[in-house]
Every structure is written in C-alpha cells, then in structure tokens.
Amino acid sequence: MTDDGGWVSLYSGGKDSSWALYCALECGLDVRRLLTVHPTGDSYMYHVPATELASLAAESVGIEHVDIDPGELDAEGIRESGAQGDAEIEPLEAALRGLDDELDGGLAGVTAGAVESEFQTSRIEAMCDRLGCELYAPLWREDPRGLVDAMLAAGFEILIVQVAAAGLDESWLGRRIDERTVADLEELHERYGVHLLGEGGEFETLVVDGPHMDRRIDLEYRTEWDGTRGRIRVTDATLE
What we know:
Elements: E1 6-10, H1 15-26, E2 31-37, H2 54-61, E3 65-68, H3 81-102, E4 107-111, H4 118-131, E5 134-136, H5 144-154, E6 157-163, H6 179-192, E7 203-209, E8 217-225, E9 230-239
Parallel strand pairs: 1-2, 1-4, 2-3, 4-5
Antiparallel strand pairs: 6-7, 6-9, 8-9
Helix pairs in contact: 3-4
C-alpha cells in the first residue's frame, strides 16, 4: 500500500455500500474502482438481490466497475457459518490483490458498508490487514436512525427490493424509503425487532438515485412472494 494508491469500494448498489462510497467521495478519497461480488445462492458475507444492477449504478456514478463471480462454493466440509464466511472472502481477496497490481500506486484502501455485523467486519478487517491496506467503514456502529436520516437528507432514493421478516409483506416490495416508511419500520422494530436498516437481513435495498449519481435508474419489475418472504425481479432497467 502507498499513500498515492487508489481506493476500491465494495459495492452492491444497496444503501449501505452506496452510503460508504458517498462518504468516501465526500472525504476526498481517491475511489478508482467499484467492486461487486455476485454470490450464488444465500450468502453470509454479501448483499445478494439485484446485484446485476450494480454495473448500471456504477455507470451513473462514473467509476469503473469490477464484477466478481465466486462460483459455487465447495460445500464439502463446510458445516458452519464461520467456515463459509472465510471461504466467501477468498475470491474477494484475490480480486483485490489483482487490483493492487493494476492500480497506479497500488491499493490504498477499501470502503465497506458494514453497520453492526461483527461477522462481516472482522473478516474484511483481517483481509485488509493481509493486503496491507486501510479500511474505511463510515457506518460502523453508528446510530441507525441517524444514518437513514442522513441518507434521506443527502437525497438518496432507496427502494426495498427484498423482504424476509415478520411484519414485512408483499406491499413492501418496491417501496421507497421515506419518512413514512421509516416511521413504519420503527413500529415494526418495537413489535418484532426489525432493524431500521435491515441489518439482520430483514430487508434489502437498491439506491436508484443520489447526489453521487449523474442519472437516475428507472426500473420495471415484477414481485415474487412465497407467503413469508419475497423480492422484486427486475425485467428492465435503464438510466434516465
């Protein structure tokens, strides 16, 4: 790592990684790549739904985008979440090592949108230690209400693209997060323990517009609902 190296933003297109990217840019960090991991199936480490739109979002942001397809995990011998998390970090670390060689000045640091997950953050921190680079995690241990208020005040347009928690039914799919939505989420937090930012996997999001983006993402989609959980399935997406 060198002081004149470039930063890589771990980027799913969701609100948390987008906010980490936005804060990094506001702080003057030299973010030169947005990097998206596309997990196959459920993941302990990564945001899963709608990551196929990250490249379109990156085009709007105006920063070169890198995709990582980790392929199918070899589940033989993986019997618990910690081992799977360790296995999931390997393709990300390999990609970052490649970028360390590719970027002029090397890899200075990595941005991440972790809020409360020690499981994820400890593994990303250890990876950065091995790579000899810094970690910038501006959401870490911050107040959830303060974070969502800051996102809305900055002009983020955030859509809910997946739900999997008590109190979140099909009507939440495609819903925009605004003051009314936040109030409803606070009620669900009191009743069911739903995290205001969906940190426990209760819901996932996509940022379709923000101050760091030149053009808004326009979506067409259908909803998929199995009675207890659901997601939107994007049928078309363009930059306005």
